[in-house]
Amino acid sequence: MEESVWEEAALPSAPGEAEHPALALANSAVALPGGHTADLLGTPARAEQWLARRDLAPADAGLAEVCATQLRSLREQVRSLLASRVAGQPALPAAVTAINDAMTRVPTASLLLWDEKTGPYRATPHPTTAIVEHALAVIAADAADLLTAPDAARLTACASPPCNRFLLKHGRRQWCSTRCGDRARAARAYARRTALE
Questions:
Q1: Do 13 and 24 contact (CB within 8 A), yes or no?
Q2: How many of the other CB atoms lie within 10 Å of CB of 125?
Q3: If we measure between CA atoms, which residue out of 89, 84, 21, 20 comes closest to residue 56?
Q4: d(Cα 102, Cα 62) in Å, to the nearest integer?
Q5: What pLDDT does residue 125 have?
Q6: Is residue 44 a contact partner of residue 68, using CB atoms and an 8 Å limit?
Q7: Residues 142, 148, 152, 157: what is their CA dihedral angle, to the nearest 10 degrees?
Q8: Would you say the pTM of this structure is higher than 0.85?
Q9: What's the Cα-to-Cα distance from 109 to each of 22, 125, 159, 164, 183, rounded to whole Å?
Q10: pLDDT at 193 > cutoff 90
């Protein structure tokens, strides 16, 4: 199947994606059978839809290509960190720096603001021009939490090649979706049949 045919709805969420936007971001570029790929952030419009579905940006944010590129860049850094964690390898320093930079790019403290009519109030700034920076900070903070929380021990890569998605294991499940589990079981059955012939 061509990438344009695959929509996000056709790709079931991997276990843990609902709780961790960083895991969902890492899984937004999917390797499919037959050497095909699906990139849920491939265009600014698709990146905007992806962010809006996770309440990280308004649906009409009007993202430009530079914004989608920033999101795809963070995805590669998050993927690198998750892969390092799963493999038990040291993380690339550039990936750690990218996560820390994204987290510190936006203010996290509620600032004092003053409205002419209602007076003083506190709010965390989130201007329209900083939508992507805010989304990147939220995702980066979630990646840091995922990598350092007890859930990190459950982090694994899908065990069904060519799938490249990550998931949080529940029990013995090693696949990101039923589709991948079925494909892995079919491959094992085929291997057993051909070994007996």
A1: yes
A2: 12
A3: 21
A4: 21
A5: 62
A6: yes
A7: 60
A8: no
A9: 22, 9, 41, 36, 47
A10: no
Single-letter amino acid, residue 115? D
Residue type for 103, please? M
pLDDT at 138: 92
Task: Kindly report, residue by residue over 101-154, the tens digit of the pLDDT.
Answer: 999 887 666 778 888 999 998 877 655 558 888 899 999 999 999 999 998 999
Please tell me the total number of residues recorded for the chain in this structure: 197
Q: What proportions of the chain, in percent to the nearest 5, are helix, strand and coil? A: 55, 10, 35
The helix (run of H) or strand (run of E) holding residue 111 is strand 111-115
Contact 30, 17 (CB under 8 A): no
How crowded is the C-beta side of 177, counted as CA atoms within 13 Å? 17
- The pLDDT value given to residue 108: 65
